[in-house]
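4.2 Preliminary Data

To establish feasibility before requesting continued support, the project team ran the inverse folding procedure on a target of 279 residues. The structure was first converted into the token representation described in Section 3, and no sequence information of any kind was made available to the design step. The complete token record follows.
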């Protein structure tokens, strides 16, 4: 019976590791949907809204020939969660805005108790007009917030949702985005590029900002979670939860890919956030 020595075994494993990593990164991980769950305490959140759940989807970068099955998984997973609200934080397409049409067939199936809102990403703005996106989201009954806010009425208790324009070559206006929201009212801001967090919180404390844009690095170093490649407006806040001077931010890894369809130690992500009251 053939038997490898210890040294030979190590050599075989070292030789196989890059190949296995490449197979995972190119063929396996981009199709694996993960669900991240987190409780976030909002100091101004009324006790009546304690337990309010938000599903965040970001950076779909839809490719109909490659991502159809993944989007079916995403929609089924969101609907199975029976969340209170859904937030879409931009980059629905990469280079071809026409793929928004088949993508909307998926997004129109999303279900929640109190609605859904979307904001634009930089790739969206680079490929077509704001009116194009607003029209197509409107057909699916999804409000597209561009430097706007809306007030939810959750069984008589208000919760404000605000969304900026995309930041990279766009025209974000934080003052216009937040206008009319009382200083002591809880606000959830949808801003595609996470580094704009510092600009938003300079206007007023942001109870929670939801962002994407970075893809979490898309390829990360296993175990330590370091992302070697960073993107403009996503250098300071790359992935996960951050808190600065009473304002809070969560950055999603997103579900899609830009450039080469590859992910490593950074699978597609559906975020489920549960808001908690401090009272």
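Position-by-position output of the design step:
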């Amino acid at each position: 019976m053939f038997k490898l020595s210890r040294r030979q075994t190590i050599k075989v494993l070292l030789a196989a590791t890059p190949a296995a990593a490449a197979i995972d990164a190119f063929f396996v991980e981009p199709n694996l949907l993960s669900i991240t769950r987190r409780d976030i305490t909002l100091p101004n959140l009324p006790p009546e809204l304690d337990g309010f759940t938000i599903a965040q989807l970001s950076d779909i970068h839809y490719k109909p020939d490659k991502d159809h099955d993944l989007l079916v998984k995403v929609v089924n997973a969101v609907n199975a969660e029976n969340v209170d609200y859904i937030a879409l934080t931009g980059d629905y397409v990469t280079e071809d805005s026409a793929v928004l049409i088949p993508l909307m067939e998926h997004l129109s199936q999303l279900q929640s108790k109190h609605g859904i809102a979307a904001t634009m990403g930089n790739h969206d703005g680079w490929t077509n007009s704001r009116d194009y996106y607003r029209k197509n989201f409107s057909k699916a009954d999804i409000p597209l917030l561009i430097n706007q806010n809306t007030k939810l009425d959750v069984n008589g208790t208000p919760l404000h949702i605000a969304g900026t324009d995309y930041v990279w070559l766009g025209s974000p206006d934080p003052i216009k985005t937040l206008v009319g929201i009382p200083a002591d009212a809880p606000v959830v801001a949808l801003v595609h590029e996470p580094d704009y967090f510092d600009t938003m919180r300079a206007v007023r404390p942001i109870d929670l900002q939801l962002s994407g844009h970075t893809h979490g690095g898309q390829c990360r170093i296993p175990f330590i979670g370091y992302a070697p490649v960073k993107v403009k407006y996503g250098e300071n806040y790359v992935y996960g939860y951050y808190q600065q001077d009473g304002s809070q931010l969560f950055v999603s890894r997103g579900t899609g890919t830009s450039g080469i369809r590859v992910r490593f130690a950074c699978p597609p992500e559906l975020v489920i956030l549960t808001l908690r009251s401090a009272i």
